[in-house]
């Protein structure tokens, strides 16, 4: 017969904040400040309290603390794709900067869906986060209403749209598309095509397309936009684009892809069919993914300021919360630039 061991009462023997305070020889208020406002605790006391916390294995009750103050130490962030390498540095820079001041990142992915973003925003706001960070300005009507009524800092990243209410940190996708077209035109290419993302809902890629179209018109060229089958895996979508475009009676001599995954699929498909890149067709991506420089030929691309966006977004949040001093007037718009990385594919 199975023995029934006495069940330990939940919370029994738990190390408390008062235990930490007694062990460190400080007040409970000082320990609370160590977790909630570490910048207001002297380095000597921070070191002493941290040592006791580590020794006792103390875990603060963040839920109780958040309820007591009506505001937690959590920052909610919604991005289009958690697994996408293009956003990795933004997440890392944002999280690293926050953690130095006792704040933690709560992350959700919208998978390029405004409906899923709306659901994540509603859930985050229900937890009373200290601030909310979103990607781009493309939101549902309900999300727009929620962020307009939120009494917390709201930041939009990877975007630059004058006239928006939230603080924006990013760049102009329209200008990125124009930069790509101008660069290829300057290299002597005249039949320049643009390949959209196969992921439905990537509205930022549509803005890059718009910038490309505007620039080609200004240069006296004919715009040429190809839309892969929606839902295709990126490499397959790039392959489909390259094979279809190169079958045209007068094929393009350069192709701008919406991201590096698509560009890599197109480049590899072109090589398999016997194309010489860039002699027969140049290939330009967006994102500067880790594999871009490892391809043969290496992939020319536009590198977004992903890390800078994350660090700056966290800094603006901390300034808005009064954690960091605001030396200058908070800039509502924070314009950054993408860097064109010229490699062998162009």
From TrEMBL:
Q: Which domain of life is it from?
A: Bacteria
Q: Pfam families from the xrefs?
A: LacI (PF00356), Peripla_BP_3 (PF13377)
Q: State if Iron-sulfur is listed as a keyword.
A: no
Q: Which InterPro entries match?
A: HTH_LacI, LacI/GalR-like_sensor, Lambda_DNA-bd_dom_sf, Peripla_BP_I
The record's GO molecular-function terms, alphabetically, read: DNA-binding transcription factor activity; transcription cis-regulatory region binding
**Residue ranges of every copy of the HTH lacI-type domain listed in the record:** 15-69
**What keywords does the record list, in alphabetical order?**
DNA-binding, Transcription, Transcription regulation
**Does the record's keyword annotation contain DNA-binding?**
yes
This protein is called LacI family transcriptional regulator
């Amino acid at each position: 017969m199975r023995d029934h061991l006495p069940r330990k009462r939940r919370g029994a023997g738990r190390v408390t904040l008062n235990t930490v305070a007694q062990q460190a020889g400080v007040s409970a208020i000082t320990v609370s400040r160590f977790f909630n406002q570490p910048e207001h605790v002297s380095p000597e006391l921070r070191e002493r309290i941290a040592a006791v916390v580590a020794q006792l294995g103390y875990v603060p009750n963040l839920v109780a603390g958040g309820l007591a103050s009506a505001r937690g130490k959590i920052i909610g962030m919604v991005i289009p794709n958690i697994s996408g390498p293009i956003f990795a540095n933004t997440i890392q820079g944002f999280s690293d900067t926050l953690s130095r001041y006792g704040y933690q990142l709560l992350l959700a992915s919208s998978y390029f869906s405004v409906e899923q973003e709306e659901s994540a925003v509603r859930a985050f706001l229900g937890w009373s986060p200290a601030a909310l960070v979103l990607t781009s300005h493309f939101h549902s009507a309900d999300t727009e209403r929620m962020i307009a009524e939120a009494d917390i800092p709201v930041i939009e990243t990877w975007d630059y749209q004058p006239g928006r209410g939230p603080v924006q940190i990013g760049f102009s996708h329209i200008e990125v598309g124009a930069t790509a077209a101008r660069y290829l035109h300057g290299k002597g290419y005249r039949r320049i095509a643009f390949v959209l993302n196969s992921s439905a809902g990537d509205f930022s890629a549509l803005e890059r397309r718009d910038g490309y179209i505007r620039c080609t018109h200004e240069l006296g060229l004919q715009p040429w936009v190809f839309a892969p089958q929606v839902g295709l895996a990126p490499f397959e979508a790039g392959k489909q684009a390259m094979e279809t475009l190169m079958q045209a009676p007068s094929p393009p001599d350069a192709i701008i892809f919406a991201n590096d995954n698509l560009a890599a699929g197109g480049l590899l498909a072109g090589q398999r069919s016997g194309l010489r890149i860039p002699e027969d067709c140049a290939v330009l991506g967006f994102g500067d993914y880790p594999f871009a420089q490892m391809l043969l030929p290496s992939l020319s691309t536009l590198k977004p300021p992903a890390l800078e966006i994350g660090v700056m977004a966290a800094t603006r949040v901390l300034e808005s919360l009064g954690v960091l001093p605001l030396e200058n007037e908070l800039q509502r718009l924070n314009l950054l630039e993408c860097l064109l990385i010229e490699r062998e594919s162009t």
